[in-house]
Specification:
Layout (H helix, E strand, L loop, with lengths): L6 H29 L4 E5 L3 H11 L12 H8 L5 E9 L3 E8 L2 E7 L2 E6 L4 E3 L11 E3 L4 H13 L7 E6 L5 E5 L4 E3 L5 H13 L6 E5 L7 E4 L3
Parallel strand pairs: 1-3, 4-7, 7-8, 10-11
Antiparallel strand pairs: 2-3, 4-5, 5-6, 8-9, 9-10, 11-12
Length: 231
């Protein structure tokens, strides 16, 4: 007959067993939390100053468990930076997040409520406090949509107009543009038939008809008005 265990002793043994295993489990969980806590966020693809701005935003994710961290939460934070075009997030065990970022091309800058904003090729206006200024980009004036501006630049490029030589764009309420080139020549375009007008401008340019010309006015269909610097 097997020896009987005193009920009191049984409960004592059970208590110590649960106590000891609980301590072990607690220590194990503590170790796991420490081992898999995010302590490094690598950011690639940005300048030093831009990287610092982004790192400050991501600091809240440090010490989070790498397994429970939601990538969509990190993505949402990064999407608040309008100058970013592509974002890649990769978890590297045990405690590192690797982030590869691609900046959008800056195609101009404008004023909104008296504040400078850059125009991103990604279709976003980028607050100047997010981005290091580039002085080699044109100024764009008026209440325009980025797609309207991009469409104009695409038409100009398709017709071999060197947009690098345009220093200012002016957009008007009737949906037409004026362009000021680096040689101080102003090209006035119509609201319609823009491509036809640019072809006319290119023909004038190629035939050397714009020497000493200050304004090329193509606002009216089938009419060319040239103003020289002496007028």
């Amino acid at each position: 007959m097997p020896p009987q265990i005193n009920k009191y002793k049984f409960y004592i043994y059970l208590f110590f067993f649960i106590f000891l295993t609980s301590i072990f489990n607690f220590k194990f969980l503590e170790y796991c939390n420490f081992k898999f806590s995010i302590n490094k966020i690598d950011i690639n693809g940005l300048s030093h100053n831009e990287k610092k701005i982004v790192e400050n935003k991501l600091n809240d994710f440090k010490k989070s468990n790498i397994f429970t961290l939601r990538e969509d939460a990190v993505l949402k934070t990064l999407e608040s930076f309008d100058f970013l075009e592509k974002i890649y997030i990769n978890k590297i065990l045990p405690s590192t997040i690797n982030i590869k970022l691609t900046k959008t091309a800056i195609i101009g800058k404008t004023l909104i409520n008296g504040e400078i904003f850059f125009i991103g090729k990604n279709g976003k206006f980028i607050n100047s406090n997010q981005f290091i200024e580039n002085n080699d980009i044109p100024l764009v004036f008026g209440d325009f949509k980025i797609e309207e501006y991009k469409n104009l630049q695409n038409i100009l490029t398709d017709h071999q107009v060197d947009i690098a030589k345009i220093k200012k764009y002016f957009f008007y309420k009737n949906k037409r543009w004026d362009l000021l080139f680096s040689n101080d020549l102003t090209l006035m375009l119509p609201s319609k038939n823009v491509e036809k007008s640019i072809k006319i401008y290119k023909k004038l340019l190629n035939d050397d008809n714009l020497i000493n010309i200050k304004i090329v006015d193509l606002r009216v269909l089938n009419q060319i008005i040239l103003t020289d610097f002496n007028e």
